[in-house]
Amino acid sequence: MVNAAQSSAPRIDADELIRLANDAGYRQQIEYSESHHKDAIMEGRFALTSYPSGLSVHLSDLKELQTLSTSMELPPKLTLSVILRGKLDFDLGDSNFEAGGAGPECFALSIPRHQTFHRRLRANRCLTKVNISVSREWLECRSQEEGAAPFVMEELFSEDVIFAKWPASTRLIALAEQILNPPPLNHLLLSLYIESRAMELLSDGMLMLPQHINKPRTDAFETLKPQDNRRIATAREFIEAHLDTIDSLEETAAAVGMSVSTLQRRFKNAYGRTVFEYVRQRKLESARDALLKKELSIGEAAYKAGYRHPSNFVTAFKRAFGATPGEL
């Protein structure tokens, strides 16, 4: 049986948000001024749905109308999020985390024990995102099966909260958009459609997670000056726009008015990886998307990703995605 909590009104006040959280099994608290108690705090789409498979899907496509904080108790779980628009900032215990704000971005959040989650809303800020969550028990059950996820549960649920973020791939963006904007289907088919996309999104995200799980927390992004943040975001946009033709750091550095060494240092500080690592991963993702669409042969995909020898491409592809191109 599907357990769904969804706002039927475009404008959501504090009482409505608390009801939605309670329906989904969470105890929500909201810190607001009494003078704004009855005012709407957000408008748009907001839904929490739990599926029989154990997946929980939370989607938001809204505008925040007030500046305030919310809090709730979260159980041990893993959440994979795709932020398509806007920025999210929240606290878990004494740690602050931020994601989004510079283009579509994914983040993974692993909570090893019950934690108090504090979320900050900002008046007039827009946010479009999809969260897929599974409990620790759900993962532990599947990690005992043959062909389980390529990382150890003890690493994923260590003593500390694990937070990792990376630029969203074309495929993850497409899956998130399909969940947000499904085709017109009856209730049963709609449920199966969203659940299947959510499972794909979780699977693809977990394949990427081992590459980022040991990276230093990328909230160091905010230690840069605002103008440096903008220039690094512009550098990433330049790379995305010239992904098929870019062949040197110099052209990216020149496009944003930085030296190569400064670009390398600030890009890694912002995104937790070097420019080279980012370009290599994005080219592999682009090649994978083309293979999935049957647009290229494996040899052509290798060339597209910048590999002269298909054997090297196959090795890098399997390391990145857990499967060879021929196994797609």
Automatic annotation (TrEMBL):
| Keyword Ribosomal protein among record annotations | no
| Any GO molecular function | sequence-specific DNA binding
Alphabetically list the UniProt keywords.
Answer: DNA-binding, Transcription, Transcription regulation
Q: What name goes with this protein? A: AraC-type DNA-binding domain-containing protein
Is Oxidoreductase one of the keywords?
no
Q: Which organism is it from?
A: Hahella chejuensis (strain KCTC 2396)
The record's listing under PROSITE patterns reads:
HTH_ARAC_FAMILY_1 (PS00041), HTH_ARAC_FAMILY_2 (PS01124)
Determine the domain of life of the protein's source: Bacteria
Q: Which InterPro entries match?
A: Homeodomain-like_sf, HTH_AraC, HTH_AraC-typ_CS, PchR_regulatory_protein
Q: Which SUPFAM superfamilies match?
A: Homeodomain-like (SSF46689)
Record-linked PANTHER family: REGULATORY PROTEIN PCHR
User: Residue limits of the HTH araC/xylS-type domain?
Assistant: 233-328
